[in-house]
Design brief:
Helix content: 25-40%
Largest sheet: 10 strands, mixed
Number of strands: 20
Distance between the termini: 29 Å
Shape: globular
């Protein structure tokens, strides 16, 4: 007894573990690279600036695979795994059975509710790893709710996983939709939200600079900026889509603009109230993916006035989302906030070149044509080469009918690509795991490869060389810092504030959030909790 009593006294003196946060707000900002955030940070005066100043800020979270894109990025953030485990390798692949392009999340067994029939992203059937949302639902006997909102299906679906709920904005109908995987009919709160036609409130308005023009660096109209939906290249940008009344073209122009971020905030408010998120001790998850940042990035580039203005507006939007979540959870003591990004992005290559950088826009169609001609000249027949970003898919009856040695064709394709001026290296899938990893690029290619979905040949462009079939705008998807490095910010319950400058992996995000929620890690996670920024004791 004399030994037991001191032990009991010691145990009662130890700090007890606090209950997990009632609500986790998980924000992903599409195309928010570390360099873009750090360059703009001094001008953040609103919610994003406050989050950076008061939370645990990791400026250098790195994607560990070669092709940072939206679908695999969100899948990695949700699962803590790389594509070689979760199976989502790109926004689009070539279906080998049909020879046609296919989205990352296809599902012929399900359809999109309240929208026209779609062959696009529909359900998480293709996602092969457990997500944070799935883990939360299972850990709470499905009492905890997990809901994802986005302007893109390929962002919402992996964040919701198989057991959560995913809703995304469809610019064809101007409403938030979901698929029959998740529900047979929209919940009442979303029906009411859509019935009010909120996007129409912006019809006829213009996207104007939020701040005085002196706050914007460079020129409004810069070389190789794009134009879409009648938005034009300079401010102000009309949001009508060239229509006299609201319709798909207007919805599309609106969704590209950062004003659509305000619609996402409205939808988040409706979801919080409709689902009663954060109202009890059972933890809930609300994932919000901001898509307009990526649209503006692709159209105008990261150095444009439009991108600067989008980030200034994001600063406020983040504050609005945090305020909504804080009220729902009953105060900051019951809230966890996570903010990160699915990828970064390169500058418009012609703008880089004008500054003296060895940069170039690389047209994948020209590469495909040249490679196809070279392979037919050597092997004959009807061999075809289709390039999707950094993947080459080989096809044709000659190859499919085994009239030639497939491995020889793949190796010849890799050798031809490796000789092109814009290409740093290329490898046939047959040799991916055996060739020496000079410079570390093979490891990045391996982590991004999934058999049957990835290409027959993988390649890497040289630094500052950007794969893009469009003659204007910017792109992402290369294994360099401007594409791979993104910020991670944690704030709220259980978080130690500070700036942590070590490079971490984006596979650490899901395990860290799981640890803060005091639950097990997603089952296929490769990363580990960032213990240096976690404090779970009272």
């Amino acid at each position: 007894m004399r030994q037991v009593i001191p032990l009991l006294l010691l145990l009662t003196a130890l700090p007890s573990l606090a209950a997990p946060p009632r609500l986790t707000l998980f924000i992903t900002v599409d195309a928010l690279g570390s360099d873009l955030l750090l360059r703009t940070r001094p001008r953040f005066k609103g919610g994003l600036g406050q989050l950076l100043d008061s939370g645990a800020f990791y400026p250098y979270a790195s994607y560990g695979y070669a092709k940072p894109r939206t679908a695999p990025g969100h899948a990695t953030l949700a699962t803590g795994a790389n594509p070689w485990r979760h199976g989502i390798v790109d926004n689009r692949i070539i279906n080998r059975a049909t020879g046609k392009p296919e989205r990352a999340f296809p599902d012929p067994a399900h359809s999109v509710l309240k929208a026209s029939p779609s062959t696009g992203d529909v359900s998480p059937a293709a996602l092969l790893a457990e997500t944070l949302a799935d883990k939360l639902r299972l850990s709470t006997q499905k009492q905890g709710k997990a809901l994802a909102l986005s302007g893109k299906a390929r962002s919402a679906i992996p964040l919701a996983g198989r057991l959560g709920q995913a809703y995304w904005f469809d610019d064809k109908v101007g409403q938030f939709v979901t698929s029959t995987w998740y529900t047979k009919e929209l919940p009442g709160w979303l029906e009411a939200f859509n019935t009010a036609h909120p996007p129409e409130a912006w019809f006829g308005t213009k996207w104007e600079p939020l701040l005085p023009v002196a706050e914007y660096e460079g020129d409004d109209d810069q070389p190789r900026e794009g134009d879409y939906g009648g938005l034009g290249r300079t401010f102000p940008h009309p949001l009508t889509g060239g229509l006299a009344a609201p319709g798909p073209l207007a919805y599309s122009a609106f969704s590209v603009s950062p004003l659509s971020m305000e619609l996402v905030v409205q939808a988040a408010r409706a979801a919080i109230e409709g689902e009663g998120l954060g109202k009890d001790e059972v933890p809930d998850l609300l994932a919000v993916s901001i898509s307009a940042t990526d649209s503006v990035f692709h159209l105008y580039g990261p150095q444009s006035w439009e991108m600067q203005d989008t980030l200034y507006r994001l600063d406020k939007v983040v504050g609005d989302l945090v305020a909504l979540a804080e009220r729902a959870a009953g105060g900051r003591a019951h809230l966890l906030v996570v903010l990160t990004a699915d990828h970064g992005g390169a500058a418009i290559p012609e703008q880089w070149a004008a500054q003296g950088v060895d940069a170039q826009r690389v047209d994948p169609r020209a590469l495909s044509k040249g490679l196809t001609e070279a392979l037919r000249g050597r092997f004959g027949g009807d061999i075809t080469a289709t390039i999707e970003e950094l993947d080459v898919y080989l096809g044709g009856k000659t190859l499919e009918g085994l009239k030639v040695d497939g491995a020889a064709v793949r190796r010849a394709a890799a050798a031809w690509l490796g000789r092109q001026p814009a290409i740093s290296l290329a490898v046939a899938r047959d040799d991916l795991y055996t060739v020496p990893d000079v410079g570390g690029m093979m490891t990045l290619l391996r982590r991004g490869y999934y058999p049957g979905r990835s290409g027959d040949v993988l390649f890497v462009v040289k630094p500052f060389h950007v794969i893009d079939s469009e003659p204007t705008g910017a792109n992402h998807g290369a294994p360099y810092g401007y594409d791979r490095l993104v910020p991670l910010v944690l704030a709220g319950k259980g978080v130690k504030p500070g700036t942590y400058t070590q490079e971490i992996s984006t596979t650490d995000v899901a395990p860290t959030v799981a640890a803060l929620l005091e639950m097990g890690l997603p089952s296929s996670a490769e990363g580990t909790p960032r213990y240096e920024s976690i404090s779970l004791g009272r």
